[in-house]
Amino acid sequence: MPGPVNCSALNGKTEVRLLLVEDDEQLAGSLKQELESSGYAVDVSANGVEAEYLGDEAVYDVAVLDLGLPDRSGSEVLHNWRSKGNTLPVIVLTARNAWHERVDGFKAGADDYLGKPFHTEELLARLSALLHRASQQPGGTLNACGLLLDEERQTVTTRDGQQKQLTGTEFRLLRYMLLHAGKVLSKSQLTEHIYDLDSDKDSNVIEVYIRRLRQILGDGSIETRRGQGYIFKVN
Ligand code: CA
Fold first, then answer.
1. Are residues 28 and 125 in the same domain?
2. What was the pLDDT predicted at 129?
3. What is the CA radius of gyration of the chain?
4. 155-157 vs 163-165, strand pairing mode
5. What are the residues facing 165 on neighbouring strands?
6. Contact 116/96 with Cβ under 8 angstroms?
7. So what's the pLDDT on residue 96?
8. pTM attached to this predicted model
9. How many whole angstroms from 67 Cα to the centroid of ligand 1?
10. Partner residues linked to 75 by β-bridges
11. Do residues 203 and 187 lie in contact, with contact meaning Cβ atoms separated by under 8 Å?
């Protein structure tokens, strides 16, 4: 059975996972150290193509993105993330006083920016403000297992970038399964969590919804354990 790579951040999450995209080795090295001593789990990427790929893996809570990168520019990376529905909170690093870079960054979908050189304290303050804002967003999104759930729109964006509309029940079921990916969930457990308190609970109806989610996400997404329940597959 494959390890919980894409969904691990959801289970017993304590650390904030940060993707640091910076091709200046010295700056990246010292920032990584300082961020880690402030409690972040940091992965560093030094080129745009890899960074875009990593940012789509849905394991990060926030990214710090330099704009001048080899292979693919930071603004292109950001633009690509946003056009795929990836809402990862991003702080862009720009050259000092380069107002056009800041404009480019915001146009591409940055949440905040910081001009180089900067004090790490300022980056830390901006990171915690951004993470706070992201967690306060009404109708938030859940980015897990390569899927993006949008509560406000009641949609799921699949791994191949297609956005599908869900009913309220489908949405609640999928969210619950994603939050407990890799674990066996019994029919009665699922029923308890997706219906309102007063509604008629019929656990056989779960099968209908599971079938519908498989149609949307692919047959391999949810495994049936006979007599036990269902598992949302981690990979
Ligand atoms: Ca650079």
1. yes
2. 87
3. 20
4. antiparallel
5. 155
6. yes
7. 65
8. 0.56
9. 6
10. none
11. yes
